Amino acid sequence: MSNVERDPAETVCGGAATIAEPEYELLEPREVPLGGPRAMLVGRTLPNRDRRMVGAWCFADFYGPADIAGQPGMQVPPHPHTGLQTVSWLLDGEVLHRDSLGSRALVRPGELNLMTAGRGIAHSEESPPEHPRWLHGAQLWVALPGDHRAVAPHFEQHRDLPRSSTADGTVTVLMGRVGDDESPAAAYTPIVGAEVSAADGRVLRLPLEPDFEHAVLALRDGLTVDGRPVATGTMLYLGRGRSAAEIGGPGSGLLLGGLPFEERIVMWWNFVGRDHDEIARARADWEAARTAGDPGSRYGVVRGYDGPPLGAPALPGVELRPRGRTRGPS
Q1: What is the CATH number of the domain that holds 50?
Q2: Does 328 map to a domain?
Q3: Lower Cβ count inside 10 Å, N or C end of the chain?
Q4: Does residue 28 sit within a domain?
Q5: Residue 265: enclosing H or E segment and its boundaries?
Q6: Minimal CA–CA distance to 20: which of 214, 234, 302, 227?
Q7: Residues 97-145 pLDDT 10s
Q8: Quick check: 125 and 91 in contact, CB under 8 A?
Q9: 24-50 pLDDT, tens per residue?
Q10: Is there a domain that residue 305 lies in?
Q11: Using CA atoms, how far apart are residues 263 and 304, in angstroms rounded to an integer?
């Protein structure tokens, strides 16, 4: 998914974490139009004003449930990415993915679409012409560490993820490991991502890795985390030092976590880099490839989308600077 803001703010994050104790911090989403001012709205909880990352998770959008009957639904033209992985997760609906590697995949509920941008890729996302009435899901980015951010781009679709169920609820592992269940998805940092659904009136005790920091993004109404209600589309940050969390229902959420990402990074528009020059090069390369339709560029060409690719916003008038992963000194 693209960050389609025409005047994207500089996002600076990374740097070693200094707190290793459990905590609770509620991260409220901000509304962002997806695809233009008249497009569907999404709620963005990462990057947040004060906390920009959870482990290597650096971007989290939540959308729906949106009634798109008789409407175009999601329409995100071809756009570039560098230095990150995109994670697509649906609760309802369908999204058609195309990329410059030639991949064409239909994203469905309960299936993981994972795209590793590495040194550069382009993709589009759209609701198919004959699409279900409802669209409901999440789109997330994972920052690639420095020694992997220039890997060859690749795409994975996992339709059969590890899933465990008890009377208390169900856990589906998207990335990393929860208990004895491990996802087959490629990961480049110690990380975890899982959908957790608790049954009505039950509490599911979820094992956690104490060295990780964790957060839970609420996907459906009724979710509680350690007895605290978390409204749909809101994220509760849990800090580090926990061996378990109690997820109450009815409700579901995405558990996100990982070792604190110690590298300082700059995230601007759809690029993750380490300094201003790297971001400027990524933008210039995209604009050159987009205007020339150059399949030999670092991004390639997305074929099959009915419309032109997205143009990159202008760079800000000041130098983009890598700073700490949270607001304030770090």
Answers
A1: 2.60.120.10
A2: no
A3: C
A4: yes
A5: strand 265-268
A6: 214
A7: 999 999 999 999 999 999 999 999 999 999 999 999 999 999 999 999 9
A8: no
A9: 999 999 998 875 545 678 999 999 988
A10: no
A11: 37
